[in-house]
Amino acid sequence: MQIEPFGLERWFADHEHEADVMLAESGVRALDASRFDTDPGRLDYVVPTNGDPALRAKVADRYGRAADEVLFTTGTQEANLLANLALLDDGGHAVVVTPTYQSLSSIPETLADVTRVPLEPPEWGLDPDAVAEAIRPETSVVILNNPNNPTGRYHPQETVEAIYDLAADAGAYLLCDEVYRLLADEPIDPVASMGRHGVSTTGLSKAWGLAGLRFGWLAGPPEVVQAAWSWKDYTTISPSIFGQHVARQALDREGEILRENRDLVADHRDRVAAFLSEYGLEWFEPVGPNGFVTVPDGFATGQSFCRRVVQEESVVLAPGGLFGRDQYFRIGFGLDSDDLTTGLQRLRTFLDRHR
Ligand SMILES: Cc1ncc(COP(=O)(O)O)c(C=O)c1O
Q: Which of 82, 152, 305, 313 could crosslink 299 through cysteines, CB 3.0-4.6 Å?
């Protein structure tokens, strides 16, 4: 078994530590630990190891499901890994909508035969007919990320329901990574609430600004959740007790935290949109803190552009080639407002110099 190196993480490893401004982080700036009680008591495993039953029941309510249809994980990343292991344990076939967060394509490609369904610019819309064409009799899962990273496109309820019906009719599951869902002004229903064939993954890293908690979950039908739990016995055993302790408080204060983070993202999105239009750069106005932007004239690819920006201005952007689209770069604008100001000032200096 061989897995592709995670291009974005390798790019960050090369540049993030040394650079002054990180304009490629995909989440919302982290909240301070001082806003929470951080003493969970004894530092034991979480028992039962799938997560505190009362908290799972609360999370499960969001999906119209029972506590045992939710598994707490170490971030959304683990939820996606476990979902793939559970759904593709016999190999088989998966349909993956791209461009997407790399783990949602590289993990299934390591385990199974994959057909990619491309979203096309400028709107990055999802065509149910293309998904229907890609589904085969042996397809066990269709994999979606909505709102999408890197494009920020949020597919509407009727499109996602159409994809759900296609998956269900084929006896497959629809797995949707919904980690940016609660940054939408009007979130659509999560996939795990759409029926027996829906599996949702998410976590507190992005919309809540709590990446350091490493707390997420998977919600779906019992057979999938059980199979994922069986794999979790070999990955992290239980969630972190710190993560779960703070997650409980964050979920209790969800309204306040999400309002704060949505306001920040909306304000920053407006600032970035104004900046891009000044320089004639295009994006599809994103939901969430990531935008996928056309590479400025004079640069062959997102890679050459982003490399020069980090070398000359110490600002990290993400080359679109890491998402299979080398005429784009991804900008992450969920960072602190002062850092956004500095980052855009430096980009301005760079673009003016290279006009
Ligand atoms: C779509 C998507 N899913 C999952 C993750 C990983 O999230 P977590 O920090 O919750 O593991 C990311 C991080 O960028 C992401 O963009």
A: 305
Please tell me the distance between residue 146's alpha carbon and the centre of ligand 1 in angstroms: 12
β-bridge partners, 330: 292, 318
Question: Which residue's structure tokens are 């993990």?
Answer: 107
Residue 237 sits in the same domain as residue 307: no
- Reference 197, options 226, 228, 176; nearest CA is 176
This prediction has a pTM of 0.97
Both 185 and 318 in a single domain?
no
Same domain for 262 and 116, yes or no, is no
**Pair of tokens at residue 88:** 């593709």
Of ligand 1's atoms, which has the minimum distance to the CA of residue 290? 16
Tell me how far the alpha carbon of residue 179 lies from the centroid of ligand 1, in angstroms. 7
Q: How many domains does the chain have?
A: 2
Indicate whether 218 and 202 sit together in one domain.
Answer: yes
Same domain for 168 and 274, yes or no, is no
pLDDT digits (tens, 9 = 90+) for 124-164: 999 999 999 999 999 999 999 999 999 999 999 999 999 99
Which residue among 6, 82, 148, 149 is best mutated to probe the pocket of ligand 1, counting the most ligand atoms within 8 A of its Cβ?
149
Question: Which residues contact ligand 1 via a Cβ below 6 A?
Answer: 26, 75-77, 101, 145, 149, 177, 179, 203, 205, 211, 216
What digits encode the pLDDT tens for the residues 14-56? 998 899 999 999 999 999 999 999 999 999 999 999 999 999 9
Q: Which atom of ligand 1 is nearest to the CA of 27?
A: 14
Q: Which atom of ligand 1 is nearest the CA belonging to 78?
A: 11
CATH number of the CATH domain containing 272: 3.90.1150.10
Residue 281 included in any domain:
yes
**Ligand 1 center to 76 CA (angstroms):** 6
Q: Do residues 193 and 59 touch, judged by C-beta distance below 8 A?
A: no
Distance separating alpha carbons of residues 12 and 354, to the nearest angstrom? 24
User: Could you say which of 252, 270, 288 is where a domain stops?
Assistant: 252
